[in-house]
UniProtKB/TrEMBL annotation:
Key word rRNA-binding present: no
Transmembrane segments: 16-33, 39-59, 71-89, 127-147, 153-174
UniProt entry keywords in alphabetical sequence: Membrane, Transmembrane, Transmembrane helix
Pfam families: DUF308 (PF03729)
Protein's name according to its UniProt entry: DUF308 domain-containing protein
InterPro entries the record matches: Acid_resist_chaperone_HdeD, DUF308_memb
C-alpha cells in the first residue's frame, strides 16, 4: 500500500519525467528534421543536451530517498556532464571524433539501462527496447565507414533521443498513475 507522501512523490516524479521525456523527444524530432546541420553545430547541440540531461539526472539522484539505481544513474549523470564539457571546450577537435564519442555514449547508456532495469519495476519493456536500440546504434556507428557514419549521425542521435524520450514518458506515466 502506498501512503499519501509516496503518492505525491510518484506524481511529482511522473510529471518531471513526462516533461523531460517530451523535451528529449522534441530534440530528437528537431534533429531528424535538420540532418544537414554542420558537424560543429551538431556537437554544440549534443553537448548542450548532454549537459542538461546530466545535470537533471544528478538532481534526480540526489532527490531520491531510496537506493534503487542511484549509483548507476549518478555515474551516468557524471558521464554525460564530462562528455558535454569535453565537447564544449574543443568543438572543432570534437567534430573529428564526434562519431566515436556518440557511439561510445550510445553503448554506455544502453549498458547502464540494461544494468539498471532490475531496480525499476516500471516501464522495463521500453527501457529494454531503448537500451538495445542504443547499443545497436553505437555498434553500428563503430562498424560503418566513417564518412557514412558522419552523414548518418544526425539521424542516429534523433532515433536514440526519441526512443529515450518515449521510454521516459512511458515510465513516468506509469509512475504518475501509481500516485
Amino acid at each position: 500500500m502506498i501512503d499519501n507522501q509516496q503518492q505525491a512523490l510518484l506524481k511529482q516524479e511522473g510529471n518531471c519525467g513526462i516533461i523531460m521525456g517530451a523535451l528529449i523527444v522534441l530534440t530528437g524530432i528537431l534533429m531528424a528534421m535538420t540532418p544537414v546541420l554542420t558537424v560543429i553545430s551538431l556537437t554544440a547541440l549534443i553537448a548542450a543536451v548532454l549537459l542538461v540531461v546530466g545535470i537533471c539526472t544528478l538532481v534526480d539522484v540526489f532527490r531520491r530517498t531510496g537506493m534503487e539505481r542511484r549509483m548507476l544513474d549518478g555515474l551516468l549523470g557524471v558521464f554525460f556532464i564530462v562528455l558535454a564539457l569535453l565537447i564544449f571546450f574543443n568543438p572543432a577537435g570534437s567534430a573529428v571524433g564526434l562519431t566515436i564519442w556518440v557511439a561510445a555514449g550510445f553503448i554506455v547508456r544502453g549498458v547502464m539501462e540494461l544494468a539498471g532495469m532490475g531496480a525499476s519495476p516500471y516501464g522495463r519493456s521500453f527501457m529494454a527496447l531503448d537500451a538495445i536500440v542504443n547499443i545497436v546504434l553505437g555498434v553500428t556507428l563503430f562498424c560503418i565507414n566513417p564518412i557514412t557514419a558522419q552523414a548518418a549521425l544526425g539521424y542516429y542521435v534523433a532515433i536514440s533521443l526519441m526512443f529515450w524520450g518515449f521510454s521516459l514518458i512511458h515510465r513516468s506515466v506509469l509512475l504518475r498513475h501509481l500516485g
